Amino acid sequence: MRTFDEMYLNSPAEGGAVRDHYLDYAQWLGKQSQDYLRARSAEAEIVFRRVGITFAVYGDKDESGAGTERLIPFDLIPRIIPAHEWENMQAGLAQRVKALNCFIRDAYHDQEMVKAGLIPHALVGGNSQYRPEMEGIQVPNDVYANIAGIDIVRAPDADGNGVYYVLEDNLRVPSGVSYMLENRRMTMRLFPDLFGKHSVAPVAHYPDMLLDTLRASAPSGALEPTVVVLTPGMHNSAYFEHAFLAQQMGVELVEGQDLVVEKDIVYMRTTQGLQRVDVIYRRVDDDFLDPEVFRPTSTLGCKGLMRAYRAGNVNICNAVGTGLADDKSVYPYVPEMIRFYLNEEPILQNVPTWLCRKPDDLKYVLDHLHELVVKEVHGAGGYGMLIGPTATTAEIEAFRRVLLGNPSNYIAQPTLSLSTCPTMGSKGIAPRHIDLRPFVLTGTEVNMVAGGLTRVALKEGSLVVNSSQGGGTKDTWVLENQDEPKGGR
């Protein structure tokens, strides 16, 4: 299968011609010994372990029954994106998130796109992620997904040129931005001289941008809004990120037990008494937010939270019910959302997708399972999916039975040859497949830092970049125009 390498026009074995935006870096890399690079990689692991940059893997249990803590492997060779490519991607991301917010608002109000026959009602009102409790609620600025993580992949076209595609939209509680920030800190710590040679766009201001977005999303009348980060607690896989972002923004990290609702107003318990809360950056799933409305046994949320939300006395970011729009069966309709709500043509392409709930699509998928990637519509983390070209005959047949049992629960896509980037491995530097998750913030306007989290499949030949499946991360450099000041914070 043909691949597109981010750094090389052709493989090092074929002469290793380097792409223009990597020339300076490739020259520097060629002067470094393998021992030096391995030593820097070991230093990074020590620092990450000392700081506590870990995630929990629920499939691996310790003696207490909690998920075991792991480091996400950090690869010290950055993924570099030239300015003109980022400018186009940024425009496409802003366009896409605007349309998705329009769709979510429409879904909980007039459902004009359904009435126009452009998306089936079953995928909206009949969706398992649809929350009837959100019908008619007016959210600040009509923004439901204040923080979006859009997964971007690159694959070669027929001429071998790399084309960017949107693979997934993550709108509920997208994670990973803390690793983006810590990767940049680590790269600057290990190789400070590189940032004097490259004009790398900064990312360190993301927490400030996030706080501005959250404050701009406060209910009207909150002149000095109080923002909190709501976490399920220290056993959550992304707890490090919750604590990190709260600390970086200078706001309180709270659990459900720290909040109380009185007269439809949310308060935070403090040593000085109750303090009103205006904006909740929630990292808790819908079902656990309010035991009065959703799961009655939940201890992770706050009783009465939805009453305060409906009364307009608090804003929840992201809004309850945003999962409707990151359902993988809704994903194929995003280009039409852009045309319908914005009257524009999509800037970024979708990956071709078969909806297994459609009989003709299901027949094609069943006939081509060995060629396709099949995913659960609500799956995440690389679980509940089949990668046909790497699966055994037995695995394909077992998945076929599962698919036939509930076809509407699956979509299928061609197996894209994700672009590769040179990566440090036990046997030296070798290409490994990568993706990119930029983070898009929407308050009164759309903002994002340049780049995002690059995830890398560390196993040779693997296309699964998820950390829970053995993937790692890289620093992502977006090169500024050469007349811009050099930096890289």
From TrEMBL:
Residues 78-457 form the Circularly permuted ATP-grasp type domain. InterPro entries: ATP-dep_Glu-Cys_Ligase-2, CP_ATPgrasp_2, UCP005522. Pfam families: CP_ATPgrasp_2. Residues 467-489 are annotated as: Disordered. It comes from the Bacteria. PANTHER family: BLR5612 PROTEIN, SLL1039 PROTEIN. This is Circularly permuted type 2 ATP-grasp protein. It comes from Comamonas suwonensis.
